[in-house]
Amino acid sequence: MPPRIPTKPSASSASALVRSSFASPCTSQCLPSCRAGFSTTPSLERSTNLRRAFLHWTRTVGANFRQPKPEGGSNYIGPAGSASNKPFPLNPQFRSERVLDEQARELIWEKVMRQGETLKAVSAELGVDLTRVAAVVRLKEVEKDWISKGKKLATPYSKAVLGMLPTKSFRPGVQNQPLEPINEIHIHTATQKQLFWPTAESRQFTREDAATAFHAKMLSADKRVPHPELIRMEKDLLQGMSPDEARARFISAAEQSERKAAEKQVRKAMAEEQATTKVNTQRFEFRFKEVDSELVGKDGRAPNVVGWKYGMPHYDRKKGLVKIPTSVP
Amino acid sequence: MPRAAQRRLHVLRRPKLRQSWSKYNLYNLWRQRDPKIGFADHETFFQQKWRAKGLLRAYHGEHIKERDWERMFSRRLLSVANMNPRYMAENDGSEMAAGRGSGRDIVQRWKSDVVEPKTITPYMNMAFAPMERRLDIAIFRAMFASSARQARHFVVHGKVKVNGKVMHYPAYKLNPGDMFQVDPDSVLFATGQPKKKGGSNARQASKAPQDNAEAEPAAEEAEGAEAKAAEAAEASEAPEQDPETTDKPEAAKADMKPTRQAIQKLTKQAKSILARNRDVSTSQKQNLRSFLKRAKPLLSKAGRSTATPTDILGELNSMVKELNLSDPSTETAATPTESSSEKATRQEPPRSIDDLNAEELKALQRLIHEEEENPADPAKPYHTPWKPRDYMSPFAFIPRYLEVNQNVCSAVYLRHPVARVGSAEVPTPFGYQINQLAFNWYLRRR
Questions:
Q1: Which residue in the set B165, B391, B407 is minimally distant from A153, CB to CB?
Q2: Were both Cys, which of A96, A119, B159, B235 would link to B154 (CB 3.0–4.6 Å)?
Q3: Which residues pair with A64 in a beta bridge?
């Protein structure tokens, strides 16, 4: 740490410099009054230019950033007086995006848990990403659980942080502006290469054909989007269906797809249940599964198969290898 | 990492940007100018990459060994494309197969005044995307810690759970859908104002009794006046009862009912709190705390020992109303033992109780609620009542790949950060070109 700040308020750094140059001869006189009397080195009477500039900044420009804005909202450094959403002035490609406020989260939870709407329907209605809707509900459930258990929430922290961030709220029962694009697909690596694919000019070369051209097993974009039902709905609308009817069809399709996914999960769990034999003892529950020891891969050394294999080292206790778990179930 | 830990994190000379909310870091960020790498020809390409990588590595996980980061690095940069359902319904993709295989050419209007610049997808800004998967950095991004190093400290000390299980590896890489929770007390400590040694909190603690003492005399004076009135009334009505013991038999008999005097005292105090109800000063808050302290036993007397301060006011209000309602009815049925103090106040108009109107009650309720949410607690390792730390707001942003619930100090890692047309989700302090040079540095031998 540099030594103490000069006690007199310095109007400008130049005047402070002058003063400090005058003050320097007296250091030897100040020696007896120093706290560490046994030290023979006089402490630095003046601060460095850098530090002085920093302190000047804290008093002038920096003072704006000390506290969050009283009216709320973001307070990023940037050109003075501009309400920018860029926390890093040198990186215009990174923007601070809006987050859902308390009311919006409550609304989403209400829709999903109380009114029993599907995640897809809520996502499409409010313009919130499907995974985000699920996460909001999951976190809100934790919050409700805490409240029911009487655990103290970090409310002052929450209020302060949401006061500093750009937030988004929804009005129930009205068409709202979306929070984010909801129908995004990952750009598949196989689609990033350039293809030369001769086809007949007369042929209708659709997205389906393009997908198969890139890779034999690739699904078309229509199937990879999170909301294929929305495309269906738009097609219905284009064919002259009334908006209400199209909407109802969309909702039922969303319900159906969600039910399908749930059934699939249940089936998987049931299959797992049936494949294991459970034996309960006083201390443990032993679970047995049928394993074919002959399934050892092409060369008999497949990494994920059961049992010790001749010539294959066990790396799980070896020094210098990463043992950090890769997933937490 | 002993050497890295010994190095100073924030310096003014030859500054480096860090993942931290320090005021020095803010100052360095504020005065950082474009380093202009590769603008002049005095640097070789190697030198350009070296400098760019140095600038960025100082920010992105400077506490992570270079070797570890090299293992983490991935040349595969993730991006997404927004598919408009309307467009997909209108077209089946064959329109893109027209022309030379990428759609019909758009006729350029060279004569138009404004030529729209093409927006790129800033893939290069994703160079440090694998870093954002790390647990400690995700905690910093979710604003649960004031620096990545502090986040790492929390993880190592078992303050962080992933999917409900304690995870003590800061290098754990989050998978999409993982939920991480940080101990709320640690979060409040990290993001709150520090407790000054012998500073404000200690001073408050020593000052509080004085303030209470200052506040008390007024109330005591009022009490004294009431007591005198009560005595006078007793002298006329029930001379056989000892004025000193008037309260005690009543308390014993009507145990469920708080005394009228106590309620009066409290309402008076509440009024004194609300006297300047625009800005709540520290002394007023202290008054409020002492008010709550006194109101709690009153409620336990009334049979509600587990009352929260938010309930207090409603209870108090209802009690006051009950007393007023019982006035005409009890006039005839009042038993001689219980009447003494009540009758005394009944003879005077009971203005002191009724004085709190609905608005005042509401204001007081709000104040009490705030106090309940954010109490002063000297046992906490941070300044209480909690306030956000200085210079926090310029650093406040939450990237899109996280969904955070601040109330429970938990967040969900939704997906890996991605690039879109015009923006990249990795929070990095430098722009496209410098990231590109750094990316190229790590591409070597790969």
A1: B407
A2: B159
A3: none
Question: Beta-strand (E) ranges in A94-183?
Answer: 99-100, 167-168
Residue A147 touches partner B, C-beta closer than 8 Å: no
**Residue B114 corresponds to which tokens in the numbers above?**
């404004």
* Cα–Cα distance for residue pair A295/A297, rounded to 1 Å: 6
Q: Do B85 and A96 touch (CB under 8 A)?
A: no
Please name which of B411, B73, B21, B419 lies closest in space to residue A94, comparing C-alpha atoms.
Answer: B419
- Cα–Cα distance between A95 and A91 in angstroms, integer? 9
Mean pLDDT in chain A?
86
* Cα distance between residue B31 and residue A47, in whole Å: 19
Q: What is the per-residue pLDDT for B275?
A: 61
Q: Distance between CA atoms of A84 and A96, rounded to whole angstroms? A: 9
> Looking at the complex, does the CB of residue A45 fall below 8 Å from at least one CB of chain B?
no
pLDDT tens per residue across span A11-52: 444 443 333 444 444 444 444 444 556 777 777 667 889 999
- Cβ separation B82–A181 shorter than 8 A: yes
Range in A3-12, A258-267, A302-311 the model is least confident about: A3-12
Q: Which of B358, B297, B354 is nearest to B324 (CA)?
A: B354
Residue A289 has phi, psi (to 5 degrees) of -130, 145
Option in A51, A65, A234 nearest B391 (CB): A65
Question: Which of B88, B120, B126, B167 is the best residue to mutate to test the A interface, defined by the most A CB atoms within 10 Å of its own CB?
Answer: B88
Average pLDDT of the segment spanning B178-182: 97
In 3-state terms, what secondary structure has residue A268?
A: helix
Nearest to B414 among A67, A131, A210 (CB): A131
SS3 content of chain B, % helix, strand, coil (to 5): 55, 10, 40
Look-up of token digits 């009283």: A70
Q: Please, what is the end-to-end C-alpha distance for chain A in angstroms?
A: 47
Tell me which long-range contacts B47-50 makes (C-beta under 8 A, separation of at least 24).
Answer: B48/B437, B49/B437, B49/B438, B49/B440, B49/B441, B50/B441
Residue with tokens 């104002």: B193
The tokens of B70 are what?
């090299």
